[in-house]
């Protein structure tokens, strides 16, 4: 592929060009939970300048191609390898980051909440997100992922039915997590710390931005690669 068009879908573009996620995030284009709509429709709904979006996207893509990058072909990767990647990369990151970042979110709420009232909502949103994602990853690792690995070795209709039943609600949970992250971005002005922010404040916002990026990639892999190919 040499160029993307408005008929391409964000989820499919990110598979080919992972750094497209940066362009999409800047324009608030969903590439994970709602990534199955053509860019033409997305730009229309969000009143985005189609020409500007496509020029930015394709310019970044051409620069990336010149770097001789070779993206992973997720659609050709065995499900068990995708699961191992998700578990060892994204789940491991959440297990380590969620408690640590939670301490920072609580700290800036206690210290700065009086002068920055939005930190109260951020504190609530973050803790809801933390609990939901902890429960979500346990369900995947204990129930859904083992069934998918069994199905890969011994495909049959009974196992596929069990997967679909166990998978029930996971994509809705992805939507909920994505919406919480979008709201966090909105109330923090794109994770941009205020002028009077202390170092802890700035660290918190930077880590929230990293959490958002990792989670969106995590959800993208599950919704548009792992679950879609079953």
UniProtKB/TrEMBL annotation:
Name-wise, this protein is: Iron-sulfur cluster repair di-iron protein
Predominant location category: cytoplasm
Q: Which UniProt keywords apply?
A: Cytoplasm, Iron, Metal-binding
Residues of the Hemerythrin-like domain = 85-228
Where in or outside the cell is it found?
A: Cytoplasm
Write the gene name: ric
Q: InterPro entries per the record?
A: Hemerythrin-like, RIC_family
Source organism per UniProt = Lentibacillus halophilus
